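Q: I'm writing a short explainer about Ammonium transporter AmtB-like domain-containing protein for a general audience and would like to include a description of its predicted shape. Could you first generate the structure from this sequence?
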Amino acid sequence: MNSSSVSDVESSPQWMNKGDNAWQLTATTMVGMQSVPGLVILYGSIVKRKWAVNSAFMALYAFAMVLLCWVLWAHHMSFGSKLIPLVGKPGFALSEGFLLNRSRFGKVPMADYVYYEFVFAAITVILLAGSLLGRMNFYAWMLFVPLWLTLSYTVGAFSVWGNGFLEEYIIDYAGGYVIHLSSGVAGFTAAYWVGPRLSSDRQHFPPNNIIHMLGGAGFLWLGWTGFNGGSPFAANLIASLAILNTHICAATSLLVWVSMDMVVYKKSSVIGAVQGMMTGLVCITPGAGIVDPWAAALMGVLSGSIPWYTMMVLHKKSAFFQSVDDTLGVFHTHAVAGVLGGLLSGVLARANLLEMMYGTNVLYSISGGGIGGPLKQTGYQLIGAVFITAWNAAITSLICIFISRIVDLRMNEEDLEIGDDAAHGEEVYALWGDGQRTPTSLRRWQMPQTIPSICQRHQ
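A: Of course. Here's the predicted structure. Afterward I'll give you a sentence or two in plain language.
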C-alpha cells in the first residue's frame, strides 16, 4: 500500500460515507448563503435607503457572533448531554477528538453536524432581526444576539431535536418550530420592547432597491434546498423528496399570494411575491421530507392565503397588531406560517416516510395509522407550538428588560431621523449632490478640508 492510500484510509474512516459528507458540506454552505449574502442583501434593500447599512450589518454581525457562541458553548446546550429536560450542558465544540468522530445522525463527521446546526441557529437570529429594523440601537443588538441564542434558541433546539422532553412527540423535520416560530414570536416580542420606528418611517418605508431585494430573496429560495435537503444528513431518498416538496410549496404559495393581491388590490406586488415565497418555504419546512408532493402543494395554497389574511387584513384591523411595529411582518411570515406548517405536518405526514427518516422505533402517534393517529399527532404539534411560543415570549422579554438596564434599546430621536450615517458614519450610496445629505453628516469619505480645490489651484 502506497503512502497516498494510507493517508486516504486515515482521513476516511469506514463509518464515513464520502457522498453523504460531500452533500452535507454543500447543503450547509447553501444554508449559510441564505444569511450571508442572502438576508444581508434582502435586508439592505427592502428597507428605506437611510437604514440599508444598519439593516445589512445587523445580519452580518449576528452571523459572526452566533458562530463563536455556538462552538464555545451553545452547540452542546442544544445537542449535548442533558442538563435538565429543557437544555443540555454547555461545553466546547472545538476539539479534534470531538469534531472528527461520527455524528449522532448519518455517516458524517461531527464537524459537519456542528457546522450545519450553526447555520440554522444563525439564520434564526437574523430572521428575528427583521422585526427590529429601522430603530434598534446597534449596541443593544450586539448584546441581544448572544443572550437570545444562549437562553432561548438552545432551549427550543434541545427540547425538540436534542433529546429534550418534546423530541419523541413533535414532528419538526427542519425547523418550523425551532427556527421559524421562535424567530417570529421573539421578533414580535422584541419589537414591543424596543418600540416603534419614527411615525414618518412607519407610514412610508419603501424599499431602496427592489431588484437587489429579489436577488436576496433568490438566495433564500434556492438556499432552502440545503435547508430541507440537508436535514436527513445523507444524500438519500428523503433528501430528494424534501427538496422537490420545498420548491413545489414555495412556488404554489407565491402564486396564491400574488393572486390574492391582484383580486383585492388590483395589482401584483413584487414585495407580496417575496412574502408569499417566504411563507411557502416556512410552511413546508416542518414536514418537507415526510409528506407527499400533493400535500406540499396543498400546504402552498394554505401558506399563500392564511398568512396573507393575517398580514393584509387581520393586522390592519387588530389593535394588538397595530400596537407593535414588526418592520417586515416576521410574525406573519414565520410564526403564523411555522405553526401552520407544524399542524399540517401532523395531519399529512406519511408513516412510511417517517420511518425512513427516523427509524423503526419512532414514537410519533401518526405511525399507528387510522384517523386517530393524525388527530392525536396534531394535538402534540399544538402543545409544541404553545411551549415554543410561551418560552420565546417570556425569555425575549426578560432579555430586553435586562439589556435596557445597560444600554438604550432604541436609538434616540435625532439619530432615527438620520439613520445609517448617525449609527455607523456610513451611507449605502456614496453619491454627491443628491439632495439628501444632512448637516450632521459623519461620512468618512468626505474630502479633507486641507486639500485645495481645483479652482483654488488655478487662481
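A: For your explainer, you could say: The first helix runs from residue 3 to 11.
Q: Perfect, that's easy to follow.
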